[in-house]
Amino acid sequence: MGKSLAVAKKGETSVVPISSEQTLKASKALLSHMQKAAKEAAASADKKNLLEESTEAETPIWLTATTKRNVRDTNKLKPGRVTLPHPLNRTDPETTICLIVADPQRFYKDVVASEEFPEALGKRITRVVDLKHLQAKFRTFEAQRKLFSEHDVFLADERIVNRLPKALGKTFFKTTAKRPVPVKLHRPDKKADGVKSTPGQKKAQKEQGSSVKHAKSAGDMAKEIEAAVGAALVHLTQTTNTAVKIGYAAFTPQQIAENAEAVVTALVEKFIPRGIDNLRAVYLKGPETAALPIWQTEELWLDGDKDVLAEGSEELKALEEKKEKANVGKKRKAPAADEQVKEEEEQVDAAAEVEKPAKKKNKKAKVDSESNDAKLDAQIKERKEKLKKQKKAAKAAMEE
């Protein structure tokens, strides 16, 4: 791809804005920093595990693109795909794949097990399940978590991918780590492309009806699955920042740079509304590194005349009046809250005043009880003295 300036000017119409030289330079600097940080972390570790394998193959490299306006009005759960010059997971034999298909699953299991399907890829596909069995077997949260942990990549027939959020729930869709990637396993029109079905597929089509009538051949399915496994995924949300994984720390700087150019081209042409005019900046970064800029625009606004209002313009005045009205509405809530607090304080004070007489009454009752005890003691003392006098008089009478 041709070189371009690192800073875009207003009105620039280049489809691929980033400079190959600048991207390669940033890739070298990023990988060098990540390798140095990994060595320092390993040297400072208290205990070294000799059996621990290198994590370079698992440390991702991200391309982040910031836009001037949100790329979408709502979050999109179906990711987009970008074919990379250097695929992410296509050649890794340890990557396990779960293939979610439309009914019936037996047809697709037979395709994966057939001789026309590549044997190496077939071994990596450890589960083939249709939507009906998926909803029946993995209804509970525990079953969904088990399925999530058993496979590295999840692929889904694009005809049913929009129904998976309800079937798989937050376990799969709260993050973008293992969201099902859409794959096209059928042909819109079998006669149009002139591809003939295998004898096994013809038999299955005859027995199972029109549900697999337009299914692709085993070889075409394998190509589609390999392309999806190695592709970069674009998750569009209601934000001005989009991150796409374009490689790993084990990649070379040249591979990172070429993947970055491919992703930026796809973002500008397919995913970002209004293309390069809406693009603000592009960065490369690792999981724990700063973002290295490889391109940025001089024009900060998408529509300068509309986004930046002139001083004293009627549109600016109308906007300020609208804000003032909104603030007035918010200020009305404060007195209501103060009145509520005041009422609560008055209720507390009233309750306290009610308790005060009760305390006085209790004190008076305590004084009364103490005075009654004193009277009783006086009566007892008086009776004792009276008995003593009676005993003394009786004793004197007996002596006479």
Automatic annotation (TrEMBL):
Residues 365-385 have a biased composition (Basic and acidic residues). It comes from the Eukaryota. This is Ribosomal protein L1. It comes from Pyricularia oryzae. Gene3D superfamilies: 3.40.50.790. The lineage of its organism: Eukaryota, Fungi, Dikarya, Ascomycota, Pezizomycotina. SUPFAM superfamilies: Ribosomal protein L1. Residues 185-217, 322-400 are annotated as: Disordered. Pfam families: Ribosomal_L1.
